[in-house]
Design brief:
Structural class: alpha/beta
Radius of gyration: 21 Å
CATH architecture of the largest domain: 3-Layer(aba) Sandwich
CATH class of the largest domain: Alpha Beta
Oligomer: single chain
Order of helices and strands: HEEEHEHEHHEHEHEHEHEHEHEHEHHH
Bound molecules: uridine-5'-diphosphate
Shape: globular
Largest sheet: 6 strands, parallel
Strand order of the largest sheet: 10-9-8-11-12-13
CATH topology of the largest domain: Rossmann fold
Number of domains: 2
Amino acid sequence: MISFHTSPLAQPGSGDSGGMNVYVRELASALAQAGVECTTYTRRTHPDQADVVFVEPGHRVVHITAGAFDLPKEQLPSVLPEFGDAVIDHMKNVSPADALHANYFLSGLVAHRIKHELDIPFVTTFHTLAKVKAEGGDLESEWRHDAEADIIACADAICVNCSEEENQFRRLYGNPRGRIEIVAPGVEHAFFAPGERHGARRALDLPDDVPVVLFVGRIQPLKAPDVAVRALAALQRPDALLLVVGGASGAEGDAEVEHLQSLIQELGVQSQVRFVPPQPHHILSTYYRAADAVVVPSRSESFGLVALEASACGVPVVASGVGGLLTLVDHGETGYLVPDRDPALFAHYLREIIDHPLHAAALGRRGAERAKRYTWSFSAARLRRLYTDLGARELVACG
Ligand code: UDP
């Protein structure tokens, strides 16, 4: 596994750490449990990080020194050659591999190079793509567009999360030479399962008798936390609380936090919004269980683990009708899908949930039932078969 720009060991919920970190960590561990030994290579971001961390039997994370520990994200491409050299060296001398799996386009560039140097297949999961982001209004550099095109032209397989994402990929990028494989992410049901709301609220010091709406995720424009705040204001329930769990992320993260603060003032909902710093992954289940509803107002979303985790905890989800969220939320059955991130419509559906507890409980029950389809061991089984198939095929030729 290549996870160049962010480590599976990092705390998700702020900076560059989110769903991809959870995906790499959970998948590599599930693969290891399925008998596929995994080494994840990531860039060292702190001098104290050990060269090798044994996450569990069969899964280790190798920290590679390439550039300053605190290198800004824009400068990361300059250390790709150094990082690639060190990974090749490790693979040749310590840990030979049968297949490479790159996460995010920067890792894809590394894997592409290694494929040619070591003659092994490479699989890529983009997590986000420049053309998809552009459709949501977030523009990326031409360099990134070109880099993604190079990766797509030579990847032996491209993993997408759902058929919705496959359709979107083919619409924007055409048919690649390598195969497109749907590998849905999973959810750790041992942590994310329905539980008692009263106990969860007590644990979080939240009152029992007020509506609680939850937003979980990295604070950046792509995640549209401002829509959550606007929806809270449009709800016109002065007793309702909005919890925002997560921290600033990306170049515009700090500005987005400031924007949120002034929006909260402007809408007069200061006493109703509580910011909570990023929480260890498994602890989030308590936050989900405490909530009446979880809002996911993202501009684009390749999958949306937060929506899946909320459903697994039996909590209705009100989400934007984009990307993977279209697959995860069954409109009117497990939650609601909102077109165009309309805050008034978010508020309308939140009211449906808050004012009709029996209906809300039914949405939650069906969501939890539906979430059972998604397990990391199932995702790992698909990948295991894919890696084996690719080992027996001719590699996609570049150019
Ligand atoms: N997350 C977490 N702690 C936090 C906030 C988020 O563990 O405080 C996790 C969350 O449980 C989810 C992931 O970060 O698994 C976010 O994934 P998602 O697909 O929703 O968004 P992404 O970060 O990929 O855009």
